[in-house]
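Teaching note: in complex prediction, the entire set of molecules is handled at once rather than each chain in isolation. The prompt given to students was simply: 'Predict the structure of this complex.' The entities are:
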Amino acid sequence: MSEALLEIRDLHLTMSSFDGLAHVLNGVDLTVRRGEVWGVVGESGCGKSLTGLSISRLVPTPPARYPQGSIRFEGEDLMRLAPHRMQALRGKRIGMIFQDPTTNLNPTVRIGEQLVDVALAAASHDPSLLDDATPQQFGRRRQARDLAARLLERVGIPDAQARLASYPHEFSGGMRQRVLIAMALIGRPDLLIADEPTTALDVSVQAQILKLIQSMVADHDIGVILITHNLGVVAETCTHVAVMYAGNVVETGPVAAVIERPAHPYTRALMAAIPMRDTPRGQLQGLPGVVPDLIRPPPGCRFAPRCDRATAECRARFPGTGPVAPGHAVACYHPVRQPKIADG
Amino acid sequence: MVEPILEIQGVRKTYPARRSLFGRSAAVDALKGVSLAVTPGESFGLVGESGSGKTTLTRSILRLEAPTAGRILFKGEDMARLGPKALRTLRARIQIVFQDPYASLNPRMTVEEIVSEPMLVHRDILRLDRAGRRDRAAELLALVGLSTQHLARNPHEFSGGQRQRIGIARALAAGPELLLLDEPTSALDVSVQAQVLNLLIDLQDRLGLTYLFISHDLAVVRYLCDRVALIHSGVLVEEGPTREIFDAPQSDYARMLLGAAPKVRVPPATPSG
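The expected output is the structure of the full assembly:
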């Protein structure tokens, strides 16, 4: 088994707000190796995005505070890294893609210039990025431009060299997301964090983007964290899945194991809420209740108030994470052990 | 054959070419002759990707947009021929639920004001006094699974799912027969989406409503709709009973769309493609 690329241990995150201190992450554990695509799923407000942002250290402190926990990236604790060293990692070794491709590009600057800026910034940390591009005598800017064009081509934008002169508004949503992926890949990251990268896109474009991410993993042996609320996307794209609920990772494992035999009642409830091929009209199961107030979270298991299997034990103490099968772990006193649930 | 509640006949919509500070834009054919019929009491799904023309069609049905050619009939009546007063009367019978429950409720209004507003707009049809409107607002909230105690609150106090319930209550306030549902669950979590979908089914069974459900989420359409039409670049590419379209799509576009939609199933041991 290869060494972990990313290792998050017992990560706690609190946010101060007018109403009090919100316990947003409550001991998150996650390990990502090269070649793995981790789907992080859960309802809105479960801490998926903040886990992703914490890895790149993009959560402003204050209002956020990390009372305990560590995030190790190839053995180095990111929580203790000086800001300028973190800056060098971010965008270079850790790439990020966000949900909305429209708001993440500067509308007044040509695509090419935006990519060149990123390429030059990445090259300032690692000059070798520009080496194999163009003969030295053309200058770094020209080299960066060629690199940008090559990346645009790689993410499937036809006539890339000419499109460098385009403005973002001349691109469709799917193309803009490709530009952002190209941008995230310029520094040849080892870890790609994609936060809902296809939520704003049409299904056909979504399929292309997900395929692109998969091919990046196959070609460059990177690790990926794919934050999404769409279990269908996870089933088709990811190798592993982590289900989050109210700041905890409640179930982790290989995608096939978790989706075939979801053990945590929350995972099961999430899956039961998806309309499947044979769901009879009116028989879809919603999940009653809402995500708990993170300022005054319920004691014990945070899912207990919505869980039909909850007992006094659940309400008293948070269950530790334990295995239900090799590689498949669940944080629940009463995990479901049942044959697999029906296909969609 | 029952008379359709909504009939769209060869509707075309062309947005003319424009010249502006930034140059010239070409004319856009948003709808290129779309025809379809919705029968009373059914759920009709209109599926298309962005830019397919589904929003233009929705806006045309609400008469927020005048078609360039073709007719839209509501219960046999051509909407284009109605005078302003008749059109207003008709609008009480066609209501819409919007996609984003965070953007479609005025944050400065109470729930009671939000739900009562259509009753004020259509007061000449509904003829409700202040007390009558209040009672009806309470009744509508109960219908969508909220309670009277929510009447005095503002939208920010509600979750996304509750907000969408308020949006549905507002759409029902004028007593419509046809509800346009414009991606009503795409901004919600799956767990909440399931509740809202079940509410829509329950309301349809109780009130005999007709739904025109606009969506790009094929799983939701398959769950809710009796019939489906696929629209692509302003052309209706396929139409039929939901089961037939999903099980045996005829057009290349339908096959592509169905193939691209991610499904919750276990991926094969060897990665494909």
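Point out the following to students. The interface with chain A takes residues 49-50, 159-161, 189-195, 197-198, 201-202, 205, 216, 218-220, 222-224, 246, 256-257, 259-267, 271, 273 of chain B (CB under 8 Å). Chain B has a mean pLDDT of 88.
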